[in-house]
Amino acid sequence: MMEKNVKPYGQLSAAELSALCGGLQTEFEGWKGKALKLDMSRGKPGKGQLDLSMGMLDTVGSGGPVASEDGTDTRNYGVLDGIPEAKGLFAGMLGVPEAQVIVFGSSSLNVMYDTVARSFTHGVMGAEPWYLQAARTKDPIKFLCPAPGYDRHFAITEHFGIGMVNIPMTDEGPDMDMVERLVNSDEGVKGIWCVPKYSNPLGTSYSDETVRRFAALRPAAKDFRIYWDNAYCVHHLYPEADRQDSVLDIIEACAKAGNPDLVYEFASTSKLTFPGAGVAAMAASPANIADVKNHMKYQTIGNDKVNQLRQAKFLGDPENLAAHMQKHAAIIRPKFEAVLDALETQLGGLGIARWTKPRGGYFISFEGLPGTAKAIVARCKEAGVVMTGAGATYPYGKDPDDSNIRIAPTFPSLGEITQAAQLFALCVKLVSAEKLLGERG
Amino acid sequence: MMEKNVKPYGQLSAAELSALCGGLQTEFEGWKGKALKLDMSRGKPGKGQLDLSMGMLDTVGSGGPVASEDGTDTRNYGVLDGIPEAKGLFAGMLGVPEAQVIVFGSSSLNVMYDTVARSFTHGVMGAEPWYLQAARTKDPIKFLCPAPGYDRHFAITEHFGIGMVNIPMTDEGPDMDMVERLVNSDEGVKGIWCVPKYSNPLGTSYSDETVRRFAALRPAAKDFRIYWDNAYCVHHLYPEADRQDSVLDIIEACAKAGNPDLVYEFASTSKLTFPGAGVAAMAASPANIADVKNHMKYQTIGNDKVNQLRQAKFLGDPENLAAHMQKHAAIIRPKFEAVLDALETQLGGLGIARWTKPRGGYFISFEGLPGTAKAIVARCKEAGVVMTGAGATYPYGKDPDDSNIRIAPTFPSLGEITQAAQLFALCVKLVSAEKLLGERG
What is the tally of helices (H) and strands (E) in chain A? Predict the structure, then answer.
């Protein structure tokens, strides 16, 4: 960090803080006058990113082709687990054999929901359904929730009345001492939510050691599964290999550790092509895949194979896919950098905040002073910038320190995001100064 | 029926039957020599029907449009319940207000599955979830199953351990005396599976009186719902209005009867455009729709809106849709007629079978002598023609009389279906003659 002529807020006197608050408040009022209307709340691609995949819409047109590579007419009923080329696409993305992939409809969240729901009502690979286990043992089913994490994961488990246990995140992933202790001792612990690469919201990736420790778990519950949401598996911000994170293949690691059935891995093309019209997939051991298919046959005759064909044709081989993802990166990297610049310039050295500097994914994670996150988000909203709700990154929406804020820089334009980041930094300063002043009072 | 020089099999002597069996067996051996390989098992459109909708693939191409009529970018995240024009499409098909429609992904079966699953795990409009009710009362949840009916409906309820009660079908729909008695008295009865128009497999439609009696039910269970699978709502075989069935609007009928929340209606474009890539919908009262959406938000951020846009653009206004469906009819009507001709010519007057003569839908329902259906299907298979499994049209796959066979004429070509129908009729004669002969012995 550059030397700057700033004094950490913690070293300011009450009088200095008071003067600071006054100045910041005036500045804030100026921002309110601009009547901004910006949304940094969700990990949503911008229009320019969507335009990158318009060619996909022509890959299956009225002139065809409509047959998959094995000759299946994608327009008609059938093929429960997906056409071969769509399986191949995900097999390539995740580094797993095609036979260990099921391709679904447009939403990986829906696949994860269904996985929890199926386990609840019908059990995992022949085990007693969770609702019956919970009734018999009088104990709720539990999930471990590395936090900060993805709010929609936590919403699914909460919706099923599944108890959620916060697991702190380190630079290498979840606190594995705690994970091992809980998973290996408590039969009520049935799952853990993981975003291993460019995690939501930290943007950091799990270390090899973390993946190996996951694979070596010896769960007390035979129906425990790792929910490995590899949502950002190919979502690098930089083209240089040495600026890209790589995460060990969990499925291979589990197999090597003699734990082949330990994990369900999820992915989708939502942030490769169209979030509203991609395809999702699950990868797992052959036994898990057979179990899921045996249940799926009651749910559907088959998912949208024409769209599977579109995605597979458009994203093509791995080099093609990597090149396509770098087009995304070229659009969103400047947005990430604009936010990081604003944070560094405005907040560097003030001792009131830290933040992650991700090399991929969709988020920057911000940590303010304890007890300031809700107030910062509220101030931003007052001036027309919507952030992800403070607390949303924790189970039950409760951030114990009220300090974490998820920044999603992708949706607004570069100009807008630059403005929004400036305003955000101002709100951080204002709320932090007010808080410190209050503590002196 | 034309006068024919045939004697009902029941009036033949043992010697005559024996001679008949010999001749039919010889004829059957001849058919086996043809090595047919035909599939009449599922209600699946043929290739010619799929080709009718190829233009749909061009309605959303790389040149756009990608915005829905309210300006939503269909490519991006969001819009839980479907874009306005897709709601409008189903509102028109079902005769309900757009606000009472949710549009989903590609499979109405999946929507029905989710509806049962949601009721099981989370309850209906605030009522206790079914799994808790069942545990408390020590009684299983029950569904009424008009039979013969759709095997995939029955498979869903069986999969959830829901008890299934057979309801006989009359020419006007389910036996409503029995439906009223059970629904209005038994709090454990939570649903009934209905295919009201060109029903699967009968091809017949519910009378106005039946619909009104449904709407006037006074269920013992406040969380009882009619599952109204209007799969064939616009699937007429004939263009003339007086040769088309019409069924009263159940949603309006329920509202008029003071029972607005009594019914969930389902439909899809699977057999309008592509079975593998259509869109599905639910229509219901505002309170039901709100309840479903409140649950859906945990399942997904939104379904494939680009495909919703495609379907809406292609099927367009009601006249356009009706004209499109008549193109389907022009292809499949001759197939239905070929089967009906073969049945009439080969089996008319023999006293061993009756069958329905549908004016729409995808099936003809065949009733043979009691105890012959499995044997007939087995004989067909022996000669290379796959029929829907005997029993499949009844809960638990058990046809109490072993007499019903579902004939699905749409998938094979006209030439193939003509052959298959001849073979089928021969197998009916052979198995029936053998059975009657056995009874004399």
Answer: 14, 13
Q: pLDDT tens for residues A159-189?
A: 999 999 999 999 999 999 999 999 999 999 9
Summarised one tens digit per residue, pLDDT across range B365-411 is 999 999 999 999 999 999 999 999 999 999 999 999 999 999 999 99
Which residues does residue A236 pair with via DSSP β-bridges, in sequence order? A360
In chain A, what are the domains? 9-49+322-440 (3.90.1150.10), 68-316 (3.40.640.10)
Instruction: Report the interhelical angle of A318-347 vs A305-315 (nearest 10°).
Output: 80
Angle at B156 between CA B152 and CA B158, to 5 degrees: 110
Contact B100, B283 (CB under 8 A): yes
Locate A87 and state its tokens. 């399986």
User: With a CB-CB cutoff of 8 Å, which residues 388-417 of chain B face chain A?
Assistant: none
Q: How many Å apart are CA A372 and CA B212, to the nearest integer?
A: 60
Q: In this complex, is the C-beta atom of B302 within 8 Å of any C-beta atom belonging to chain A?
A: yes
Name the residue in chain B with its Cα closest to that of A43: B77
Longest dimension (CA), chain A: 78
Residues of A in contact with B53 (CB under 8 A): 75
Distance separating alpha carbons of residues A363 and A236, to the nearest angstrom: 12
Tokens standing for B36? 């047919």
Q: In sequence order, what E strands does A155-209 have?
A: 163-170, 173-174, 189-194
Tokens linked to A105: 């409809």
Residues of B in contact with A44 (CB under 8 A): 76-77
A102: enclosing H helix or E strand: strand A101-103
Check CB contact under 8 Å for B76 and A50: yes
> How far is B118 from chain A, CA to nearest CA, in Å?
9
Residue B293: how many other CB atoms lie within 10 Å: 12
Q: Does A131 touch chain B (CB under 8 A)?
A: yes
Among B77, B104, B136, B314, the strongest candidate for a mutation testing the A interface, having the largest count of A CBs within 10 A, is: B77
ipTM summary value: 0.96
| pLDDT value for B2 | 44
- The packing angle between helices B208-215 and B176-185, to 10°, is 10
Q: Nearest to residue B405, comparing CAs of B202, B170, B186? A: B202
> Which residues does chain B have within 8 Å of residue A305's beta carbon, measured at their own beta carbons?
276-277
Q: Do B107 and A62 touch (CB under 8 A)?
A: no
Q: Is A216 on the interface with B (CB under 8 A)?
A: no
**Residue B42: which of B355, B329, B410 has the closest Cα?**
B410
- In the three-class reduction of DSSP (H, G, I as helix; E, B as strand; rest coil), residue B270 is classed as coil
Which phi and psi angles does A85 have, rounded to 5°?
-70, -30
Q: Which residue of A has its CA nearest to B50?
A: A75
In angstroms, the CA B78 to CA A274 distance is 11
Contact of A137 with chain B, judged by CB distance below 8 Å, is answered with no
* Residue B385 identity: V
Given a contact cutoff of 8 angstroms between Cβ atoms, the answer to whether A365 and A249 are in contact is no
Q: What 8-state DSSP symbol labels residue B236?
A: B
User: Is any Cβ of chain B less than 8 angstroms from the Cβ of A52?
Assistant: no
Tokens of A100: 């260990």
Asked if B61 is an interface residue toward chain A (Cβ–Cβ < 8 A), one would say yes
Residue B220: Cβ within 10 Å count: 14
Size of interface A-B (CB pairs under 8 A): 159
* Region of poorest pLDDT, from A373-377, B223-227, B318-322: B318-322
Q: How many residues does chain B have?
A: 441
Whether the ω angle into residue B275 lies within 30 degrees of 0, i.e. cis, is: no
List of residues 6+ apart from A155 with CB closer than 8 A: B298
